[in-house]
């Protein structure tokens, strides 16, 4: 599969790149700086330098699927990235393809009032862009992980529409994202994921139950 990763230099994005190339996929990775290009090249991906607030569309060339792993963060320009840019990416995919899109979002998007106050504004912005994707005609999946850690992945997760508070290694989020790309049953699904006791494939298979 030819996969384009947007936000390829971020904590989840670079793990998606590494796992995808290790699995034999061809990866085009959107990055912003030459240093980031060197990093994704080490994993065997093809770096594409661009900016989500400017020119970026060449990363889509030849893609069968797109992974959105970008984010402005609670202290960053989240309106421009988590909000406007994701909406623009979704609209661009509708116009030129590919139709398959997996979005790495965040737990609590549907209940920002229950999350730590410093996350409230970014979660509300994500709610708007997630909804735009959900209301589109794309073949989308939205993955909403809990608190992200740099612990080694275990391959064991808990997946649910509301998973309850918890954390998850970024490695395991990347594993879930790639599993979604290989599982057509995840199209049209929005779910939360934290560390748990279920192997990823089995956890995803239970989404329709």
Question: How would you portray this structure in words?
Answer:
This protein has a domain at 2-147: Rossmann fold, CATH 3.40.50. It contains 6 helices and 11 strands. It has helices spanning 13-22, 34-42, 78-96, 120-134, 170-181, 200-205, and strands spanning 2-6, 26-31, 46-49, 65-68, 100-104, 139-145, 147-149, 156-160, 167-169, 189-195, 198-199. The relative contact order is 0.14. The model has no long low-confidence stretch (mean pLDDT 93).
CATH architecture tag of the domain at 2-147: 3-Layer(aba) Sandwich
Instruction: Give the neighbour order of strands across the main sheet.
Output: 3-2-1-4-5-6-10-8-11
Tell me the structural class.
Answer: alpha/beta
Q: Order of SSEs, N→C? A: EHEHEEHEHEEEEHEEH
CATH topology group of the domain at 2-147 = Rossmann fold
Instruction: State the CATH superfamily name of the domain at 2-147.
Output: NAD(P)-binding Rossmann-like Domain
Q: Roughly what fraction of the amino acids lie in strands?
A: 15-25%
Q: Helix segment count?
A: 6
Low-pLDDT segments, ≥5 res: none
- Care to count the β-strands? 11
What proportion of the residues is helical, as a percent range? Answer: 25-40%
The first-level CATH class of the domain at 2-147 is given as Alpha Beta
Radius of gyration: 16 Å
* Termini Cα gap: 28 Å
Task: Specify the biggest β-sheet.
Answer: 9 strands, mixed
Pfam families: NAD_binding_10
Domain NAD(P)-binding: 7-184
Protein name: SDR family oxidoreductase
InterPro entries: NAD(P)-bd_dom (IPR016040), NAD(P)-bd_dom_sf (IPR036291)
